[in-house]
């Protein structure tokens, strides 16, 4: 078990709690992280941005549920996320803020996708790479 210290955007593995040599967790290996973690939520939003930029849908999608999250410490934080995203009422051309976009209520316009995102965040240089975005 590696405790994570979480700040507004990022989580850092605590260096005071080094795993024993017999532990199955090693530095650089993915570890589970709470899906409500602020860093996880931010990484999921980056994945959604990538999806919205590459889709031909008239409406923006937004994350509805983060099903599973892992984090790996590799020259930054690499998040591996299983996320459900849903179509919102906001149209792409309006460039709406996703936080203010509500999910579609009309049955014929509702759509849900299951996605897998790998998002690599390097906090000290403010860089984000979306390595994988499959929906």
From TrEMBL:
One of its GO terms (molecular function) is cysteine-type endopeptidase inhibitor activity. Residues 1-17 form the signal peptide. It comes from the Eukaryota. GO terms for cellular component: endoplasmic reticulum; extracellular space; Golgi apparatus; late endosome; lysosome. InterPro entries: Cystatin-F (IPR042886), Cystatin_dom (IPR000010), Cystatin_sf (IPR046350). Keywords: Disulfide bond, Signal. Residues 25-129 form the Cystatin domain. The keyword Signal applies. GO terms for biological process: immune response; negative regulation of microglial cell activation; positive regulation of myelination. Belongs to the cystatin family. PANTHER family: CYSTATIN-F. This is Egg-white cystatin. It comes from Thryothorus ludovicianus (Carolina wren).
């Amino acid at each position: 078990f590696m405790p994570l210290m979480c700040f507004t955007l990022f989580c850092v593995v605590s260096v005071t709690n080094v795993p024993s040599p017999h532990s199955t967790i090693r530095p650089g290996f993915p570890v589970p992280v709470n899906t409500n973690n602020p860093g996880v939520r931010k990484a999921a939003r980056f994945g959604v941005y990538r999806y919205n930029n590459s889709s031909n849908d008239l409406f923006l999608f937004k994350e509805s549920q983060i099903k599973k999250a892992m984090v790996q410490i590799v020259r930054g934080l690499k998040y591996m996320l299983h996320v459900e995203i849903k179509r919102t009422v906001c149209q792409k051309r309006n460039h709406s803020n996703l936080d203010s976009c509500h999910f579609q209520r009309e049955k014929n316009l509702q759509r849900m996708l299951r996605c897998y995102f790998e998002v690599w965040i390097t906090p000290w240089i403010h860089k984000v790479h979306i390595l994988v975005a499959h929906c």
